[in-house]
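Thought: the user wants the 3D structure for the chain below. I'll pass the sequence to the structure tool as-is, report back what it returns, then summarize two notable features.
Action: structure_tool
Action Input:
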Amino acid sequence: MTSLFRYNLLLAVGWCALLGELSVPNLVVGFLVGFLALSISGPMFRRTRYFTSFLRYGRLALYFAVEFFRSSMLVAWDVLTPKHKSRPAIVAIPLDLEHPLQITTLANLLSLTPGTLSLDVSPDRKTLYVHAMFVRDPEETRLAIKNGLERLVKEAMR
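Observation:
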């Protein structure tokens, strides 16, 4: 898997050399063009998880970006309007994740999202405690995190 990633990076740098300018947008486009080229030539390589793993991480990043934008707008609206709709609460979320890196990733992504903050993980690593700014129903918040971010973190980091 790492060799395909290295090839993909090499193709991205080659793309920048072809265009004559080394910039972040050119590297991103080159990386995507390289990914497409490697996926088309996939039968040349032995079985690898690189392509599915890349797509899973992409889905996680897209979901997080949408959640980040949505929660940013919600928090900004609550701050700027005179009537506050926030109902803060601490919610205990039972975890299906087992690996410490998965739990840390979930906790950090939750803390990066405006309006939520990871507080603690139980000593047995089975429960994550999260402070959320907008909690109508704790069970609804719990299910939203489990069916959204936790599920995608688990899929991406298998």
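Final Answer: Structure generated. Strands lie at 89-94, 116-121, 127-132. The chain has five helices and three strands.
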